[in-house]
Specification:
84 residues; globular; single chain; 3 helices
Amino acid sequence: MMEYEKICLASRPGLDRRGRDVNSTLACALVGAKLLIPAAHLEAGLRSGERRMAEEINRVATDAVADSLWIPPDSPGKRVKRPH
């Protein structure tokens, strides 16, 4: 996270795009949120519902800090709902 923050501070991206559901996805999303960089989650809404999986926690948390949620083209849009 510290290295990604250095990159963001140096380059000041206009949009932070995050895909996948790995730990680095969430880490980078948190850095972007801290630095007020608008974020888009590219695979938003894909859910297993299994909270014991790290990937599911990463998905939910990344959605929570993202400014926009983008779904894969083959996913039904009704699956993306913000809890707040």
